[in-house]
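sanity check this chain:
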Amino acid sequence: MNSTHARVLKWSIILALGGFLFGFDTAVISGVEKKIQTLFNLSPVWHGFTIASALIGTVAGALIAGKPTDIYGRKPVLFVIAVLFFISAIGSALAQDVVTFILFRFLGGIAVGASSVVAPMYISEISPAAIRGRMTALFQFNVIFGILIAYVSNYALRNMGGDAWRWMLGVGGLPAVAYFFLLFIVPESPRFLVKKNKMEEASKVLQKIQSLNVEKELRDIRLSMTDVKDRLFSKKYAKPITIAFLVAMFNQFSGINAILYYAPRIFELSGLSSADSMLLPVLIGITNGIFTMLGLIIIDKVGRKKLLIVGSIGMAICLGLTAKAFYDHNFQGYSLLIFLVGYIMFFAFSTGAVIWVLISEVFPNSVRGQGQSFGSFTHWFFASIITFIFPIMVDGGENGAGYAFLLFSLAMLIQAIVVWRYFPETKGKTLEQLGEELSVKIVTRKTIKL
């Protein structure tokens, strides 16, 4: 790896720590959700709403993050996100009633939603085309690493007494502080600087990213900003909007958040002890990390489209087997663990690795902030729905869980077909090339075939 790529890698790792906080906040609730239900005496509906409160916040965060990011820059918004993560972790840990708990989890959700908009976009804008997929996928890897650490932390703190759940939530404040101070190392996005007509500053950043063709890159970026007043929701951008919507929606209809949020409960339904049900998600987290790393390594070689198709088929099979196990009440040995680990393997190197990369790539510079916000909003909107209804479905026992996993399996079969038929391949192209290709097709064709 040359010096410029090494520098981009360092910056991308720092920016991707927003993904670590995202993942930790997402998964830490799995260790406390049953305690919260008992402590606050919540019905299944209220329980679902309480756990989904963070996801409702993510919807709001995804919606509002795009505009300040385009006005004030990527870096200032990430500083605010780090502060929100800290406040949420400490506040939810100290909550004495369900309303306070919901409020602070909602604030954490805003940080997660905003992070999923800003960090992948920021990384894609400072990364050369040849390594952009790998660098942007670092965000997802850090999401997975955050999930794994949350599972490990929950297991390690499970014997801290009646307030163990408070420690599980509160430790999330430590990486938030680290993230805040590390952000001082990273420069502002050169594409944002060009947008604000700060050409000299943009040139300096580009020289650190790539030593060749800096002037040409500046011209291309500036030309791509000619449509800076464009509205996202216009016919011109129908294809990137459709791609972002579909990849985000299918990501959640894979059932990933339901499994991450309720993993211990799922394993308890199969008859495992409470201790085993807290430990097994750690194995899922390790598998997730290993295969996300695999996706990160091969995404720029294999391409986004092939990864999505192979992963969708594999997930459909594993989810179908999981559904059958619940229908048949057959949990011999560790069959359920094997099916879910298989599912995580396919999810991690495909949908998990691709989603934030693809959403950050398909929109042109003039509407990228709005487009990233739309894609993230779609992701979190469906995440909120799935997380809310899943505990209601499994409240009916094993048959309810079977119905849920069958739904997820069918969704993945549909995703494989949709990706094969409609999605473009984006590997190896600059953001300016992709923005031009996807928008020109919309403008020059009378009939849009999406």
